[in-house]
Amino acid sequence: MSGTPAAAKLPPRSWKANLPPIGTLGPFLALLLACAFFATQSDRFLTGENFSLVLQQVMVVGVIAIGQTLIILTAGIDLSCGMVMALGGIVMTKLAVEMGLPAPLAILCGIGVTALFGLANGLLVTKIKLPPFIVTLGTLNIAFAITQLYSNAQTVTDLPPMMTWLGGTFRLGGTSVAYGVVLMLAMYLGVWFWLRETAAGRHVYAVGNSPEATRLTGIATERVLLGVYVMAGVFYGIAALLSVARTGVGDPNAGQTENLDAITAVVLGGTSLFGGRGLIVGTLIGAVIVGVLRNGLTLMGTPSVYQVLITGILVIVAVAIDQLSRKGGR
């Protein structure tokens, strides 16, 4: 009898087995192709300052997309994210400027409001069993109305320095990097670890794959869903702070396209709209793809309407690929 362990007799893993998941590899290759194309069209594209600008332009949508990813992983969707973000920004700026609250407390109040909207969405989805699409379509309009009424449709200016600090930059290898970008990347890293390495994170995938089967294993699916919507609300509040920091004002008209931009980033990043499949890293890549497309087309002098057209086509292609891959896996 040989003393060699049985595990040692297993054949080595093939090179294909060592490749990243296709859900991440596909978006990453798309990003590389886009960068290669725009590099041939503009000398300014492949510069550190330009890439820093792209990340600054996507940091708000990128953080919103974290919350959107968590919801889509559970087979839901949140149309209200952009307007909830705008409401959070108005609340924190008005409390600081007009009510005189200390900036940290005002920021927490703004994040608290967005978390409450997440809680309301979660309760309507879990307790009354309303479809997430309908629920968040309703709360989108509610958040928009409250934002306009509370702000009197007026921009809030003269913000305390603490609210705009994340919009500042520091030098890294000769390139200006925004503090908000660092915060966004740190949050992606934290959520990646949570989804990958914790039981609570794996429960999110389980609920998206099969809520009933997950419930039968003893996991409280309603609690998982409720937690996901509240967490998403918190991310929208952080995105509100980043938006305020980047623009330097509390804008009641912010957030009107961020919901679609966030969904676009999630879909382009390979997360399935049917739930249970996707990687948070893919969402970051998807957000950067959108930023690179808009930046590159702008450098080429392409009208903005074509940027919207190309983004729409990419979303349809990404969803079609997801649908075909699901059918092929059956």
What is shown here, in short?
With about 325 residues, the protein is mainly alpha-helical.
Question: Which features characterize this protein?
Answer:
mainly alpha, two-stranded antiparallel ribbon, 13 helices, globular, disordered N terminus
What does this structure look like?
With 330 residues, the protein is mostly helical. Helix content is 70%, strand content 2%. It has helices at residues 22-41, 48-73, 81-97, 103-126, 132-151, 161-164, 179-197, 199-209, 211-216, 221-247, 258-268, 280-299, 304-329; strands at 169-172, 175-178. It has a two-stranded antiparallel ribbon with strand order 1-2. The chain is globular, with a radius of gyration of 21 Å. The N and C termini lie far apart (43 Å). 43% of the residues are buried.
**Largest beta sheet: strand ordering:** 1-2
Portion in helices = over 70%
Q: Can you count the helices?
A: 13
Order of helices and strands: HHHHHHEEHHHHHHH
Radius of gyration: 21 Å
Q: Outline the low-pLDDT stretches.
A: 1-11, 13-20
Terminal-residue CA separation: 43 Å
Shape annotation: globular
The proportion of strand residues reads under 5%
Structural class: mainly alpha
Output mean pLDDT: 90
Largest sheet: 2 strands, antiparallel
Topology, number of strands: 2
Helices and strands, with pairings:
Elements: H1 22-41, H2 48-73, H3 81-97, H4 103-126, H5 132-151, H6 161-164, E1 169-172, E2 175-178, H7 179-197, H8 199-209, H9 211-216, H10 221-247, H11 258-268, H12 280-299, H13 304-329
Antiparallel strand pairs: 1-2
Helix pairs in contact: 1-12, 2-7, 2-10, 2-11, 2-12, 3-4, 3-5, 3-10, 4-5, 4-10, 7-8, 8-10, 11-12, 12-13
